[in-house]
Write a structure and sequence with these properties.
Elements: E1 7-15, H1 20-30, E2 34-43, E3 48-56, H2 65-80, E4 83-88, E5 93-99, H3 104-114, E6 120-127, H4 133-138, E7 142-145, H5 153-166, E8 171-174, H6 183-188, E9 193-198, H7 209-216, E10 220-227, E11 237-244, H8 251-274, E12 278-281, E13 284-287
Parallel strand pairs: 5-6, 5-8, 6-7, 8-9
Antiparallel strand pairs: 1-3, 1-4, 2-3, 9-10, 10-11, 12-13
Helix pairs in contact: 1-2, 3-8, 7-8
């Protein structure tokens, strides 16, 4: 859906109770806000309510009009115990991409950003190898080579976090970054770091899962994108997909199919995040389409 300069996205979650939608719609109406799209979900299991509202203020609204909306939302949030955010619908998200020696997801994201398929800016790419430095620089993106060993892991992660802060990064994307983040870094990036992995875990562990998959004669190739947590590959799931395969495919074929699925699933997850369609619900996610 296209957005005008005065378009905004409001997201919130709170304990479920009567009157939430009425209160929010009334608040926006009082500021001459027009609701363009709204999606909601009440989770009976957790007792929480989730809402995403795409709204527009009048074309002649003053620059301070959204601040007035935020002020009223703060009072409403206190009354309803809400967690909430308002973002400009046109604001570009700043991405920091981490990559190692598999570049399919990186290449896909760079293309989608360059072609305008993702409303984002790749502020920088970090890698523990130099393999994709020419690719990254060809897109006019800063490349940071930050090698890591067991002895230097803490220092290297501190450099990554420094870049996040200096560049005002909105989302860190692990695009096949083959390093396990420390618990401290995971907590520092909670809710704003996404990882992609093949969906054979935990059946096929190690560096060559597609060789193991071929040896076992798998019939489905899959991928999962999730938020990063200290529990390896067990963060809240955002997006998943599969492709059926058969006995005729070689290891190289399986790897190609898997790479395509990984790229697509990661791109969908990144798009959902930067469009503020994903809300955390304990160890799960609510993803508004």
């Amino acid at each position: 859906m296209t957005s005008a300069p005065n378009d905004y996205i409001l997201t919130l979650s709170c304990p479920d109770r009567m009157g939430i939608v009425h209160r929010i719609s009334g608040l926006l109406l009082s500021h001459e806000g027009n609701i363009i799209d709204a999606q909601q979900f009440g989770d009976e299991q957790t007792g929480r309510f989730f809402l995403r509202v795409h709204f527009a203020l009048g074309a002649h609204a003053s620059d301070s009009a959204i601040n007035d909306v935020r002020s009223d939302m703060a009072a409403t949030a206190e009354a309803f115990d809400m967690q909430w955010q308002i973002h400009g619908a046109k604001d570009k998200a700043k991405l920091l991409i981490l990559v190692s020696k598999q570049g399919h997801c990186l290449n896909d994201l760079l293309f989608r950003v360059h072609s305008g398929q993702l409303n984002a800016e790749v502020a920088a790419v970090v890698s523990n190898h130099r393999d994709f430095e020419p690719l990254v620089r060809s897109h006019g993106v800063a490349f940071h080579h930050l090698p890591v060993t067991a002895d230097t892991k803490g220092e290297q992660e501190a450099q990554i976090l420094e870049l996040v802060e200096q560049l005002n990064i909105d989302l860190v994307v692990l695009a096949r970054y083959m390093q396990i983040l420390s618990g401290d870094l995971c907590r520092a990036l909670a809710g704003r770091a996404i990882n992609i992995h093949h969906s054979f875990l935990p059946s096929f562990k190690g560096a060559k899962p597609y060789y193991q998959a071929h040896a076992r004669g798998v019939k489905i190739i899959g991928a999962t994108a999730h938020y990063v947590t200290p529990d390896l590959d067990e963060g809240p799931i955002i997006e998943q997909d599969i492709e059926r395969v058969d006995h005729a495919l070689s290891v190289r074929d399986l790897t190609r199919v898997g790479s395509d699925v990984e790229s697509l699933v990661l791109a969908r997850a990144v798009k959902g995040h930067i469009e503020h369609r994903i809300l955390l619900n304990d160890s799960r996610t609510v993803v508004f389409r």
